[in-house]
Amino acid sequence: MTKLIFEKSEKNVNGVNLTINDVNIDFIDKKYLSDNDCSILPEVSELEVMRHYKELSDKNFCIEKGFYPLGSCTMKYNPKVNEMLAALEGFCELHPLQDDDDCQGALKLMFNLQEALKTISGMDAVTLQPAAGAHGELTGMMIVKKYFESINQPRKNVIIPDSAHGTNPASAAMCGFNIVEIKSNEKGQVDIEALKAVLDDNTAAIMLTNPNTLGLFEENILEISKLVHNAGGLLYYDGANMNAIMGHTNPKLMGFDIVHMNLHKTFSTPHGGGGPGAGPVGVVDKLKEFLPVPIVDFDGKKYYRKFDLKNSIGKVKAFYANFSVLVKAYAYILMMGSELKDVSSYAVLNANYMMHKLKDYYLLPYASKCMHEFVLSGDWQKQDGVNTLAIAKRLMDSNFHPPTVYFPLIVHEAIMIEPTESESKHRLDEFINVMIDIAKEVKSNPQEVLNHPLNTPVKKVDETLAARKPDLAYKFHIESDI
Ligand SMILES: *Cc1c(COP(=O)(O)O)cnc(C)c1O
Predict the structure, then answer these.
(1) What span, in angstroms and rounded, lies between the C-alpha atoms of 69 and 354?
(2) Peptide bond preceding 211: is omega within 30 degrees of 0, i.e. cis?
(3) 167-174 and 133-150 helices cross at what angle (nearest 10)?
(4) Given this model, what pLDDT does residue 273 score?
(5) CATH numeric code, 81-338
(6) Which residue has a Cα nearest atom 6 of ligand 1?
(7) Which residues line ligand 1 (CB under 6 A)?
(8) pLDDT band for position 215 (50/70/90)?
(9) Phi, psi at residue 97, to the nearest 5°?
(10) For ligand 1, mutation pick of 138, 208, 263, 265 (most atoms within 8 Å of CB)
(11) Which of 207, 210, 260, 262 to mutate to test the pocket of ligand 1 (most atoms within 8 A of CB)?
């Protein structure tokens, strides 16, 4: 059992010697000085501090330790060279209020990234401002709203399929739109008849993910875009699954008007506990003037922040996006070049390989060719008393991060598997074999499966209690006044 740093404290042990004469505290205003007793702070040597944090970090599961089949949150491998580039002094010591003249390099990088994302998405203009996918959606919906206001058509409805990520309806609702949900058909695709039934002159937009959250490419995407455009609506592309299509097709070819791209999913920048993300938004020509300001432009001589966009929705982020994320994504795009197309090919190949190997052991509710991910159901296992959550916990004892579970909502006991392009066949086979072993174990000894995890730092937790009454603080800390 790891002790807390407080429990490792020993009286009069120091990590560092502060020579009192070094600091003249007279210049610090008394109101900022605390009279609290500081002796409750842990006293630990430098070496022990290092060991303590190494021990904690060893408890973490990370991509450096094992495979992450983590659903549409593409937890791809993040090349370390990206980190080195983002840490260059010229980038990380910039101040956001610096004049354009003083940061031509950074502006050039942003301009070039906008251009690269234009090429990949097929869009005519791109803003780098939004800080995440959901923030991109919000930006997109604000643009939709302002666009219809500008042509005096206060359209109110945004159509969203039932397979959508929860952020889609949330973003549209935040902009005051009514959400019109449409059911997926038996193939897991948008039901064209259901779409036709809800399209009218109150339709502002449809929000679609393609490939959708089941990992399936919408076969009728061209018909869908025609129908929506004919009704006078706009098409919003949730680009979270861009990893499946890069260089093969793009949202513009499919008929979309607005796109967000999750740099932290497709372009290998870390996210979650690993750092902030970024959700640039691209638009077609007629929506250019609605983008948030400033956008980065080039006048042939100089890169500059352009503020005069006629119908801009204003700023969606203070200063300018998550710049270090932009550097990392740009490094990745340059490093891959035209091989970005192969990234998608391999991601799709790997997912199809795994799907075919697993489909005899787990229910595959939508049995068509998948894109970069596929969704199994744990319904067969549930009949034997082992639900999807238990399967996920069992996986952790085999040194695999669990996949996304219980999403998308339209699949019972969903297990969504996304291998990404960077894993070897050897590693994929290992995961497949463990999944097959678990399926067999469920048949032979379901109780045994339910006992796991046994090897993780935290064993079985009461999920409800953990969410409702999280116990995160060290008591000693709470009781003191600090
Ligand atoms: C991840 C995801 C989002 C939200 O993106 P964030 O960057 O996490 O805000 C939206 N839609 C889909 C389909 C996603 O997978």
Answers:
(1) 11
(2) yes
(3) 40
(4) 56
(5) 3.40.640.10
(6) 133
(7) 72-73, 132-134, 165, 167, 209, 213, 238, 240, 262, 277, 279
(8) very high
(9) -95, 5
(10) 265
(11) 262
Length, in residues, of the chain: 482
Bridge partners (DSSP) of residue 184 are: 190
The torsion region of residue 186 among left (phi > 0), alpha (psi -120 to 50) and beta comes to: alpha
Q: pTM for the whole thing?
A: 0.90
> CATH 3.90.1150.10: which residues of the chain?
340-468
DSSP helix/strand/coil, 250: coil
Mean pLDDT of the chain: 92
Encode pLDDT of 37-75 as tens digits.
Answer: 777 789 999 999 999 999 999 988 888 888 999 865 667
The alpha carbon of 44 and the centre of ligand 1 are apart by a number of angstroms equal to 42
What residue spans in the chain does CATH classification 3.40.640.10 cover?
A: 81-338
**Superfamily designation of domain 340-468:** Aspartate Aminotransferase, domain 1 (3.90.1150.10)
Which residues, 6+ apart, have CB-to-CB distance to 102 below 8 Å? Answer: none
CB of 181 closer than 8 Å to CB of 173: no
